[in-house]
Amino acid sequence: MAWMTQEIPPLVTELLNTGKLTSQDRLLDIGCGSGELALGLARAGIEIVGVDFSDTAILKAREAGHYFPDLRLKFQVGDFCDPNFRLGKFSWLIDRGCLHVIPDDQKQAYFNNAARGLSANGSFLIFHKSNLGDKNNAISLDSLKKMIATYGGQNFELITTKPYDFSEGKNEKVGFALYLKRSAT
After folding, report:
1. What pTM does this model have?
2. Which of 24, 28, 69, 137 has the greatest number of CB atoms lying within 10 Å of its CB?
3. Which of these, 79, 175, 161, lies nearest to 129 by C-alpha position?
């Protein structure tokens, strides 16, 4: 399954190790799949809510989380592109592979929900695949920046971008990690 992953991305581990992501944070894992990232971060002491529109993924995530009843961890079926989506406020949002599959006509709702759910000055980390296996349709970093400006520009500031390898070193699914901050307004 495309939503099943096996480890916490090194960039997220770096956030933990440098204290940018701490046990004081409340994090929404957008498109959490079967919950590996959410579970790993909850085990590091962070309060996590994982959301995915797949009932099957959330069932697997809840089964995995069941073995750790003392963690601040919750999994919810939900569509982050639904204009009525609400799960409260978060200091962090992480999207590890959803935005690149969201149709253009739903991107505004995605960014509106991100703005609504992220506290002022909160952080948003997006992992976006650039070629999805089709080098003829690869998306450039400039195109991603334009997309963020178009759909989220009034609510987010793009702080930094980094190349990111989704294929665990095979250089097959290269993309970008985009770090955004919520505007204070």
Report:
1. 0.90
2. 28
3. 175
